[in-house]
Task: inverse folding
């Protein structure tokens, strides 16, 4: 029986990273197409709690690898254990959510397995081991269908394309395993500093409010609207380049690619660079005083007006509507 | 220190990318090309490290003769010499990592800095494959803990901190939910995120000097690397077009639409 192996992720605080559940439902979709069993692996100092949490999500087996050197995530320490398990199981597919750990770890696993890899997969098609992976290129301006010719195929999935796996079905078997000790690990963990913000993270937020050059660097109204909506704050490149807001707020091809349910672009003209980073949003609202701004071409709802007048009004109207 | 950096030739991020009607690729006409923005950050960081610790920055690019433009760009920024892997035709991440591995074995750098991804393929894999195949440590998504307005950034202080004994590098990584710091033994592979630094502009004297800096040519066959792609793109298509939107006259209408039509608030 062919096997799809999904790699679970533990957050620095010890909890299961929720994106793992999206990866599991991607794994399930792939397992159905390829006629495979769905397995999941978790590596942690003590993997039992997360293994138990995962076993009810429609998986055949949970492989729980516990070892002291899994206390902090390091690609060099984790990759050999996953590659070894994948080989022992004869897994045909090894995948993970496209989180920062997934992006860091899976190419290293693939390199160990001499396997080709597709990143940010949005869809699987085909059957058996003849699977076509659909993934974005050029920041989503192109959707590509990709084939991998190696015996083992590795991938990460774009979590916004797959719903979180639900509990149900027969519980999977939890199998504890002891990975072989890694060779010399040449990278050591020093520390992790959580960036605390009252607002959600840009790439995970349900709603994003972004400001552009039209704000003239005054983000007070953008932030106030974001707080009413429980939204993350984003920015265009022009604003970041001007030094008005930190770089990590940049939405665009070279910044963050976001796909929230609601994206509100305020005072943003809509350069190609920016559009590439937010076109995947479900509903787009543009507020700009220039009626000819290109942003209106991608917006579901456009409002022509001065943001400093429109935003306070919008904030009050949303509060009233809630 | 000897630092190897990469300079992939990619479409200008400001260009409009269109898919050919037959889905075999993108329309090349009218496109401008640049150094991959993340690689430009890698070049900058390499130059800063060398300014602090001494040594040289070697820039490598893979492609046809046209990649000389990107190599010259990096040389004009201040890189000391260039390696051109002369290859035309398809190449996947394993091919690129395999070629870079050979270049690394030849050049023996203390540190390899690459962009975390190129803005065409968006795969974000090569640095990690390379580190594994070399048996080196990796620190992906290198970022900096302070803002671009800081004195350190204005004075072009490197964000990567090399240990006093020149045996380790400390890297702040931008990860989900915060910043993780790791320390790698040298030699190591580092990939750059957007917030690592602000690349310098090439000066006119820099551009003039770049013209006389050496570009060494290598070919994949000479490096003994089989670059037959294991990953093939079978079809490209444009993302589903957004349906034409509407302009709303006022805030009240907007909120009404968001509530009843889009159902997002």
Result:
């Amino acid at each position: 029986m062919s096997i799809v192996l999904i790699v679970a992720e533990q957050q620095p605080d010890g909890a299961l990273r929720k994106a793992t559940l999206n990866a599991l439902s991607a794994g399930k979709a792939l397992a159905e197409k390829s006629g495979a069993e769905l397995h999941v692996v978790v590596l942690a100092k003590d993997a039992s709690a997360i293994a138990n949490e995962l076993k009810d999500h429609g998986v055949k087996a949970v492989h729980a690898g516990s070892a002291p050197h899994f206390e902090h995530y390091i690609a060099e320490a984790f990759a050999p254990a996953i590659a070894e398990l994948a080989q022992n199981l004869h897994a045909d597919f090894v995948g993970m959510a496209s989180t920062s750990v997934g992006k860091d770890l899976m190419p290293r696993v693939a390199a160990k397995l001499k396997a080709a890899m597709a990143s940010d997969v949005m869809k699987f098609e085909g059957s058996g081991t003849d699977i076509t992976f659909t993934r974005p290129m050029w920041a989503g301006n192109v959707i590509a269908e990709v084939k991998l010719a190696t015996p083992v195929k590795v991938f990460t999935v774009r979590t916004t394309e797959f719903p979180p796996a639900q509990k149900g079905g027969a519980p999977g078997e939890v199998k504890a395993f002891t990975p072989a000790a890694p060779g010399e690990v040449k990278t050591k963990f020093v520390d992790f500093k959580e960036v605390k913000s009252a607002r959600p993270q840009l790439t995970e937020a349900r709603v994003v409010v972004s400001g552009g050059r039209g704000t003239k660097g005054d983000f007070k109204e953008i932030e106030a609207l974001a707080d009413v909506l429980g939204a993350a704050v984003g920015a265009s490149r022009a604003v970041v380049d001007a030094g008005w807001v930190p770089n990590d707020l940049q939405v665009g091809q070279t910044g963050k690619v976001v796909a929230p349910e609601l994206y509100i672009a305020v005072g943003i003209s809509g350069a190609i660079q920016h559009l590439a980073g937010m076109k995947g949003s479900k509903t787009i609202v543009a507020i700009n005083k220039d009626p000819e701004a290109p942003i209106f071409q991608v917006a579901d709802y456009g409002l022509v007006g001065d943001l400093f007048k429109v935003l306070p009004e919008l904030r009050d109207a949303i509060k009233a509507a809630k | 220190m000897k630092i190897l950096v990469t300079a992939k030739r990619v479409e200008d991020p400001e260009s409009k990318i269109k898919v050919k009607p037959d889905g075999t690729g993108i329309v090349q006409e009218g496109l401008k090309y640049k150094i991959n923005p993340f690689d430009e950050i890698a070049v900058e960081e390499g130059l800063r490290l060398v300014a602090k610790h001494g040594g040289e920055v070697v820039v490598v690019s893979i492609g046809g003769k046209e990649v000389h433009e990107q190599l010259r760009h990096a040389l004009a920024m201040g890189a000391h010499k260039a390696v051109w892997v002369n290859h035309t035709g398809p190449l996947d991440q394993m091919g690129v990592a395999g070629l870079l591995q050979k270049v690394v074995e030849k050049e023996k750098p203390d540190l390899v800095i690459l962009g975390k991804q190129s803005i065409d393929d968006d795969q974000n894999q090569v640095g990690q494959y390379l580190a594994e195949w070399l048996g080196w440590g990796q620190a992906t998504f290198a970022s900096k803990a302070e803002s671009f307005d800081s004195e350190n950034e204005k004075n072009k202080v490197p964000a990567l901190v090399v240990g006093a004994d020149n045996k380790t590098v400390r890297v702040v990584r931008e990860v989900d939910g915060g910043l993780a710091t790791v320390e790698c033994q040298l030699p190591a592979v580092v990939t750059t995120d957007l917030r690592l630094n602000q690349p310098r502009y090439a000066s006119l004297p820099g551009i003039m000097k770049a013209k006389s800096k050496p570009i060494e040519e290598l070919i994949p066959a000479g490096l003994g690397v089989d670059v037959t792609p294991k990953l093939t793109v079978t079809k490209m298509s444009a993302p589903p077009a957004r349906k034409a939107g509407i302009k709303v006259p006022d805030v009240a209408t907007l909120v009404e639409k968001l509530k009843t039509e889009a159902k997002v608030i």
About this structure: Chain A has a mean pLDDT of 94. Chain A is about 25% helix and 30% strand.
